[in-house]
Specification:
219 residues; alpha+beta
Length: 219
């Protein structure tokens, strides 16, 4: 992602006292409609849907991987897991907001299983790389998985542990993914040009360091 060309490649998360102050309101207006799905990217979402937040490195390619899944109602690119409220892309790239590049995935669990979404998550990046994904280096590219329901929490932890065992057995390091509740971790939408970026720019940058190893079935 081009941010790696001008962003500070931070190797440690910023502390709250050193984070940028941010702002009370988003510094831009965001269109409501998803360019691919034609659904709303903004709440309220339909009754019965659930939200899951995933970070696989650069959010351009990550978002595309999820909007293609039947049963997904909408997706959006954004910033999450940091300190600075309503950050800009340039601020996130500086390493001084603490945010990861995350994707909001809103889905209907009656149409797509949570396990199937987690399978896409784990298999489409390398969750052992820490603060990087391939050529993209920095804390904003860390692997992150934030859940909103007890079922998601259970499956997130169980799939992490199962995948960690498999990866270690194949010579990878341990999983570094942040697995946590989304409660208290606000999702700040990214600028309009980031939303569904690879739909508007089909030949755009898409960097993910996949392991090539499938997620095992759970017992």
């Amino acid at each position: 992602m081009f941010s790696s060309l001008f962003g500070s490649h931070k190797a440690t998360l910023v502390t709250p006292e050193n984070a940028m102050p941010g702002r009370d309101e988003p510094p831009f207006e965001l269109a409501r409609t998803h360019l691919v799905l034609g659904t709303s990217m903004l709440p309220p979402f339909p009754e019965g849907t659930q939200a899951l937040y995933v970070g696989l490195g650069c959010f351009w390619g990550a978002e595309k991987r999820f909007w293609r899944i039947p049963g997904v109602f909408t997706t959006a690119a954004g910033y999450q897991g940091g300190v600075t409220p309503n950050p800009t892309y340039q601020e996130v790239c500086s390493g001084r907001t603490g945010h990861a590049e995350n994707v909001l995935v809103v889905y209907d669990p009656a149409k797509v299983a949570t396990y199937d979404l987690l399978k896409v998550f784990w298999e489409n990046h390398d969750p052992t790389q820490g603060y990087r994904q391939g050529n993209d280096v920095g804390t904003q590219y860390r692997s992150a998985l934030y859940w909103t329901t007890p079922e998601q929490a259970d499956l997130a932890k169980r799939t992490r542990d199962a995948y960690d065992e498999v990866l270690r057995g194949r010579g990878f390091g341990g999983i570094t993914t942040e697995v946590a509740s989304a409660d208290g971790l606000p999702f700040y939408y990214a600028e309009p040009y980031h939303q569904q970026y690879l739909f508007s720019n089909p030949g755009g940058y898409d960097c993910h360091a996949e392991t090539g190893i499938p997620l095992p079935l759970l017992n």
